[in-house]
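Q: I have 419 residues here and want to know how they pack in 3D. Can you give me a structure?
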Amino acid sequence: MNEDIRIHSWPCSYYLDTSKQWVSGRLSLTPVAIKFTADKTGELLVNFHLSSISEIKKESSNLIFSSLTILEKNTKHWFSSLQPSRNVVFNILEHFWREQLLSSQGAGAEAAALQSTKGKELTGLLTGSQKRLEDTAKVLHYQGEQFDNIMRGLNKIEGDMDVADRLLTELESPSWWPFSSKLWKAPLETKPKETATVSDSKNQEGIIIRIPVIITHRTDSNVKPGKLTLFASGLEISDCNSQVIHRFESKDVDDIRVHTPYEISVRQRFIGKPDTSYRLLSAKMPEAIPILEMQFSKKIQFLEDALGFVGARKSPQVDLGTSIWQAATGLLGGVVQPSSPVGGREGMDNDQVQLQKQEKISQEEAKELKQILKKLKGLALETEAELERQDEALDSITTSVDRTTLNIDKQNRRIKKLT
């Protein structure tokens, strides 16, 4: 992720202590830093890392009203005349500051990250691939349940069509036919079992991912912190107290726009009344966007500032659309012992890969990498089997729908003859 990308910027004034005066300009937020650029000179007056911040506060005095202060190490920075409001800027800055501290644990973790070994890099990359594949499996599992529910519904419709067929046969039979009253009574007792299974699957639905977000409703200038939860069946927006603000089922979402790697908007259109639209900003949004892209592939749109994020994610090493095993083989190619007979894909499948004990790859890291690869292999096989099963289910659904349509047309013709 490009650390220089600008997440947000706001017009404001900055108190320049050296000249004892206020300077108008723009306060900018990037994924890792805060900057202030003067309007007149274009000079960068403030530039410091989020991890160096000790405190962010809303303050005021007799001379300075509605100001925001940021304590960076031993320096206190004053910002005033913030647009659209001080509260909006405060909520967004505090969110990214806290998430930065939680993810990196400050500058100490940043320095440690520079010393990370090749083994840790490989482990992190493969763990990310494993998480993506697990999320994919959850969505596919839910889709499989929906296919099963559709099949049960179609079977019930076919059963009802049989009942209707018997009823029509009775109506078409002459009055003297002795068996007409008994033709359609037997199957009527098989009704009330289906709806319970549908609701049970809804209750058992698991959470794919939950991230903290800053929420803006429609075009309101006020923002508030909350949470975004992604399910296989849709997404849910809630406040800090876990009270649901709005839930979008998959069918309700008309479009999702990715403004930046950290900001999206979700909209449901209506005729004759305002659209339901939410704008969501989060430091964790890059983790949620791939899942949204998978669930809403035809409804998601990447705007200009987010196109670089798409390109970076779809590199050969990260994209799960390419073979997991090709990525894993490329990653581990540099650490396989020269003497070990890899033999193309078979060596990987038979767990014959031996990781070289170089100074950058410890024995523990090699063991962890092998375990992750084993899990990835199992997940890939399960996903492939589920896709094949859904393929067959889709064929069965298509056949059943065609058969039901023909039956409906046939019964319509019979009803017309009776009337």
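Q: Anything worth noting?
A: The longest helix spans residues 363-418. Residues 269 and 275 are 5 Å apart (CA to CA).
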